[in-house]
Amino acid sequence: MPGVRNRLRGAGAEFLDYADLPRLRKRGPCQKAFAVRRQDRQRCRRLRVGLRIVRQRLLRHLPRMTPADRAPPGGTHCNPGEHIVDRLWAPWRIGYVSQSDKEETCFLCDAAGAPDQDADRLVVRRGESVFAILNRYPYNNGHVMVAPFAHKSDLAELDTAERSELFELVIEVQAGLRDRFRPHGFNIGVNIGAAAGAGIPGHVHVHIVPRWNGDTNFVTTCSEVKVISQSLEASHAELTAYFEEAEARS
Question: Which residues are catalytic?
Answer without folding.
Answer: 205
